[in-house]
Amino acid sequence: MRSANECFDKVKKKYFEFLNKEKIYKKSISTHIKNLKNIYIPVAFWINSKFKKKGSTLILGLSASQGSGKTTVATILSIILKIYFKRKVCVISIDDFYKTLSDRNKLGEKKHPLFKTRGVPGTHDIHLVKNFFISMKKKNFKQIMLPKFNKSTDDRLKKNQWHKINKKPEVIILEGWCVGAKPGSYSSLKKPINELEKHEDPYLIWRKFVNEKLKKEYKKVFSMIDYYIFMKVPSFKMVFKWRLLQEIKLRKKSYYKKKIMSHAAIRRFIMFYQRITLQMSRDLSKSASVLMLLKNNHEIKKVLYKI
C-alpha cells in the first residue's frame, strides 16, 4: 500500500497534465483519481513485476476495439512506468504500420477493392513489426526508425517524421485493435456478418485473404508478444458511438478536415472490423493475461488478472 501511495504522489501531476492535454474532462477529478489508484497503478505494478521476472525487454500487446481508449490507457501506463519505475518505455500503435496509400491501392487492384481501406490484417506492413521485435531481442542495440501514420491523410508520413528510438526499451507496448487476433474457421467465413461482407465480398475473396494473413504472418508476430492486455467493450454497437467520438476529436485537432469521415463513412468503416472484433472478444477474454471490462460510458468497470 505504501509503495502504491508513493507512486500516486509521484505520477499524479503528469497524469493530470496528460488528461488536460487530451481534453479528457468528462469524468470528475475524484473519478480520475480513483482510476489512477485502483486501475492504472496496479496494472503498472503488474507490468513491472513481469519485466523484472523476464530480465530483458518485455513486449506487451494492448488490444481493444476502435475508439475504446486503448491509446489513452497505453500512454497512462507508460507515464507511471517511466516516472515511478524509471523504465525505458516504447508505446507504438499497430496503426503506424499500415501500408502506404499507394501500396494499399495496389493491393486493392490485385486482390480485392476492399483492401484499399486500411484496417484489416493484410493492410499492415507486418514484416516491419516483426523486424522491430527481432531487433529488440538482440543484445547489441542500434538506433531504429519506426513508421508513423497520419489518419487524416490516410497515408504514412515521410521518414523524417518517423518515430526515432535511440535507446533500447525495457518495456514495449504495441497497442491496436487487432493485436492478438486469431483466424476463424473456414465455415465461419461463409456467412456474411454485415452488409459490407454480403454485398461487397460475396465470393469470400477478401475474408479468406484476411484470414490467411492471420494464420501466417500475423500469428508469427503475435506469438512474439509476452503478455496481452485486453479491453473488452460491452457490445459492438458501442464501437460506432465511440469511433464517432474519436473522429470528432480528430476533426478538432486536424488541418485536413475534408478527409475526416462522416457518420455514414464511419458506419461503413467499422463493418471492416466487425468480424475480427467479435472474434477477439471471445478469444482474448479467455487468453489475455489482463482483462479490462469496459462500461458503456467508457469507464473501466473491473480489471481481472489471469497470470
Task: Note down, in words, how this protein is organized.
The chain is an alpha/beta fold and 307 residues long. It contains twelve helices and ten strands. It has helices spanning 2-21, 29-54, 70-83, 101-110, 126-137, 186-190, 195-200, 205-215, 217-222, 237-253, 263-269, 271-287; strands at residues 58-63, 89-93, 144-146, 149-150, 155-156, 163-165, 171-176, 227-232, 290-294, 300-305. The strands form three sheets. Strands 2-7-1-8-9-10 form a six-stranded mixed β-sheet, sandwiched between helices. The protein has a two-stranded antiparallel sheet with strand order 3-6. Helix 1 (2-21) crosses helix 2 and helix 2 crosses helix 3 (70-83). The longest helix has 26 residues, at 29-54. The protein is globular and about 60 Å long. The two termini are 21 Å apart. The model has no long low-confidence stretch (mean pLDDT 92).
Note the main attributes of this structure.
Rossmann fold; 307 residues; single chain; alpha/beta; 12 helices; two-stranded antiparallel sheet
How many separate domains make up the residues? 1
By CATH, the architecture is named 3-Layer(aba) Sandwich
User: What is the 3D form?
Assistant: globular
Helix content: 40-55%
Mean pLDDT: 92
Q: Describe the oligomeric state of these chains in a short phrase.
A: single chain
